[in-house]
Amino acid sequence: MLKRTARMPLRRRLYIYLEPRAWPFGVSPFNIAVCVLILLSMIGAILETEPTLTRGHESFIRFCELVISGVFLLEYLARLWVCVEDRRYQHPLWGRIKYALTAAALLDLLACLPLLLGVASSESLLLRFARLFRVLRLARYGQLARAVQLVIKAIMSRRYELMVSVFIAVGMILASSTLLYFAERNVQPEAFGSIPRAMWWAIITFTTVGYGDVYPVTEWGKVFAALTALSSIGLIAMPTGILASAFSDAMRRGRDEIGNQRRH
Fold first, then answer.
1. What pLDDT score was predicted for residue 174?
2. Ranges of the chain whose pLDDT falls below 50
3. What is the rounded end-to-end Cα distance, in angstroms, of the chain?
4. What is the DSSP string of 42-87?
5. In this predicted model, what pLDDT tens digit does every residue of 196-215 receive, in sequence order?
6. Predicted TM-score of the model (pTM)
7. By C-alpha distance, which of 255, 170, 242, 259 is closest to 206?
8. What is the C-alpha to C-alpha distance for residues 75 and 197, in angstroms, rounded to an integer?
9. Distance of alpha carbon 11 from alpha carbon 73, whole angstroms
10. Would you list the DSSP string of 123-168?
11. Quick check: helix, strand or coil at residue 200?
């Protein structure tokens, strides 16, 4: 591949390395490097929120973000230059404008905005986290694409079972909230004074989180709470079992497809 692209014009060669669909074998080394740079940027943004780690290193953090954003800006400009290699954007002016308005190009521009709006600012923090969407964009190609397709197929194959489990969960949460409302409304009106307020406790209990900030104190309230806690175990296990079975079937079908392709 490297020998073949070495004989091509510079713009065509750069297009093959930049455009995921143009690279014949999954994701190009350049796009892999971009993904690594995005992950490093995310790690830096996360660590930046801890003052004890960043105190005294503010200048170095600004410099690193400036370099990373500069790389993304150069990459965005390079993509605008080479996009005319695609038949959809052949016109040297209108083709580039059309490409610049696509979702992929807007994601690329979003990665550069921290450089244009000011690095290391609280406003640019969310923009830096938005760079993760570029990794999802590249996940459509190569082995990642196959893995993503298996997950989607597994969920879609069990969508009706999952919908039923969601309806059951909503019904159980509503029933538990209503029972706790009648049992605790006079004793704890601030926590169980209405069914929507009681839903907070029911949701936290059904998800087995159990903050402990709100709990029933009456006898009937404790009985209903015990029943809710026991039923929540089955509620969580139901979609888990459905998805586990779906993933197992999807992976088996994927292995069968690969085996058939190799035999042919």
1. 92
2. 119-120
3. 25
4. HHHHHHHT-HHHHTT-HHHHHHHHHHHHHHHHHHHHHHHHHGGGSG
5. 888 888 888 888 776 767 78
6. 0.59
7. 170
8. 50
9. 17
10. HHHHHHHTTHHHHHHHTTSHHHHHHHHHHHHHHHHTHHHHHHHHHH
11. helix
